[in-house]
Amino acid sequence: MRERLVVLLIIMLATAFFGEMKVNPLGGSFRFSLGIAAFFFGLLWFQSVPVLLTGFLTGTFILGFRIGLDQIIGQAGWLESLQVHMPSAFYYFSFSLLIHFIHARRYLESPLLLGLIGASVDFASNMVELQVRHLFNHFPPISWESVFMLLFFGVLRSFFAVGLYNSFSIRQVRAVGEVRQQELEKLRMINTELYEEAFYLRKSMSHMEEITRESYQLYTRLLSSENTESSTALLIAENVHEVKKDSQRMLAGLSKLINQEGLDSQLSITELCGLVMRANRKYAEMMGKDIEFSLRCDVNLCTSQIYALLSVLNNLVANAVEAIYSTGWIELVVKLDKRNILFHVVDSGPGIPSEEREWVFKPGYTTKFDQHGNASTGIGLTHARGIVHSLQGSLQIMNDWGPTTHFAVSLPTDQLLRKEGV
């Protein structure tokens, strides 16, 4: 209720203020002003307020406002002012009445039709005002020239209000779209982290299946040899099997989270790479680093392997961000090479010594330490290579000259087009 009162007050004040921006082409007290454009825009934009009540309150407020203004400047007595400005109130009464019965708000999606409706209502309301002025103030009869002038100003004010409404609507839609896009990008990055966990969980499940099989084989061998530890081997096999079933349930839950509705089943390679670069630009800013990011993508294809590819590229680019001390650059280049898509991640960091390059994909290798001197887990590149291998591709560090780090990912095109799998 309070919000509606505030909106009504805004419409009345705006109409009164812009109503003083006027011309008097017909002479006398009849005016053309921007007040009605502000009033019409208010009715279109603030759809929560009732049209008839808004028109009645605005017309009454305009009448009181103009009488008060005349008294302040000493232009006329209040009775004379009432007689002069009363027809203006009838204009707003008739305008809101016609807008209400025509249901003009139904045509918000048809700007041309809405503009014509507004112009017609404006013209009709002006005719009502002129008739009232003729009765109260002995206003001269309406000429054909006056009619054409009423039509001209009616069209002008109506399409101005409708154009302003559509301009604001477009900006609002764009703002909502940008917020939605940011939410989707955050959700995709969260799903990427879930994908990484699911990837390792699936890998662990295959190991558990192998352990279960070997434990059961051990049980059968011990049983045939009448070894007293055969029951222990069977118990190990059963426990591992139970753990595997629990892991399957967790994997199913992760799969549902990753494949949420509202997320695209496919994403263009260019858009996906742009997402990686935008996310890591924010990461660099958070770390207080001045890094220039550049993307060159010559591949006009979409991929279904969104989270697998996001995981790999985000890992490589994030490593580059962490490797650069304070300022530098990171470049992501995507090319098509026969039946493969190549991703090159190059940065201006200190590089990796040649004697250490054969160890970078081994679990535990790291050059990153926290503020307490504790080493990182060193499984990022191992994990990235595991995902690349699951897509039948390759990940390697290139032997470029100079103090740069250059990782190259090669993935078969048909693997990037197949359905996303966890």
UniProtKB/TrEMBL annotation:
This enzyme's EC code(s): 2.7.13.3
Domain Histidine kinase residues, every copy: 204-415
InterPro entries cross-referenced by the UniProt entry: 2C_sensor_his_kinase, HATPase_C_sf, HATPase_dom, His_kinase_dom, Sig_transdc_His_kin-like_C
TM segment ranges: 51-69, 89-104, 148-165
UniProt enzyme class: transferase
GO MF terms, alphabetically ordered: kinase activity
UniProt keyword list: ATP-binding, Kinase, Membrane, Nucleotide-binding, Phosphoprotein, Transferase, Transmembrane, Transmembrane helix, Two-component regulatory system
Swiss-Prot/TrEMBL catalytic activity: ATP + protein L-histidine = ADP + protein N-phospho-L-histidine
Domain of life: Bacteria
Pfam hit, one: HATPase_c
Coiled coil feature spans: none
The protein, known as: histidine kinase
Organism: Brevibacillus choshinensis
